[in-house]
Amino acid sequence: MSAPSSSEPDFIDLARTVADAHCSTPSVSCHLHDEQGCSSKTFIVTLEDRSKVVVQFRDTPLDLSLYELARKKLGALVPTIEKSLCDISVSTHVYIIDYIDGSVWNSALGVWPDSWDDDAAIASQLGEALSRCIVGPDSSEVVETYVIPRLQTVLRENIPSDRLELRRSVEKLISIAPNLKKLPLSLSHVDLNATNTLIASQGPPRLMGLLDWELSRYLPFGIDGAQIRYIRDKKMKSGGVGFGIVKKLVKTHGGHKTSMIDVKTTEASLSQAITIMAEDGESKYKSSDKEDKNPPTFGDILNPKLEDVLNPMLVIIMKSLSSHVKEMSAPALPLI
Fold first, then answer.
1. What is the rounded distance in angstroms from the CA atom of residue 126 to the CA atom of residue 192?
2. pTM for this one?
3. 232-257, pLDDT tens digit by residue?
4. 214 and 122 inside one domain
5. Domain that holds residue 23
6. Selection from 105-119, 128-142, 220-234, 287-301 with the highest mean pLDDT
7. Which one of 70, 178, 193, 314 is CB 3.0 to 4.6 Å from 273, fit for a cystine?
8. Helices 241-252 and 263-280: angle between axes, nearest 10 degrees
9. How far is CA 59 from CA 38, 224, 284, 329, in A?
């Protein structure tokens, strides 16, 4: 956090104070969470009855309505979160978050015995969960008011004039962006990765929680597929757990048997995309005379964290989800 200068022991005491004010059971200990954000400090507080709560001090406020909608769609996979009313001088934005017992998926990827089967099972569960985040029948409004304007802004302000291949790639995205209107509107996590995905620490592979919804926003269904690069076994030459996630997303389409997306064509494109990703890893775009191998995706450019730097991702995923959409009626789902 940028503003407070308090030491970690001070924050630990403050976190216990917040927990004691919020919970009916007194706290007995507190420690810094293993995963920390760049604009927050997060602590796990243990109570006398051995239950736990999470206390987070933030530089900026959270839009709790997004968390509430995510929890409405996904139930216990999304922790409840409340803003603390305690008067804490070091931060005006303090939150109490339910503790979900589980391990960060990132620590287990490719590590378990028979990890491919286990990771694939988690990937399937994650894809099914994300498919439940559909909130409306089409994405016309968000494409016109956000997707296309953002693409145009990135092209105008963020890409040097000498990056001709990259500029052509973004221009291509702009040209096919209207196809996204036919996709259902979905609450997109946007920052989906293996560090904010919790899995069961013991027993059969089971998805336990999806954390950190602060960047989420309404976007066309499938945009989260771009974050697939974060969720893969790096030892894989091709394939990887991310393929299972997006494949599940495409197949389930919110639990509906979809005729909107050409699943067979999409799966072939996804397979090709994963191969590209595995070969090139997570290298950044750099100014050079070489052509850009992997054009940016819609997911790249719509991610608020990538305002200035475009990472190579899987353009084929989003091109598949846009160009193979059929002129069919979407499921009759009410807007929320």
1. 10
2. 0.68
3. 544 443 344 454 555 555 454 443 33
4. yes
5. 8-99
6. 128-142
7. 314
8. 160
9. 10, 26, 28, 44
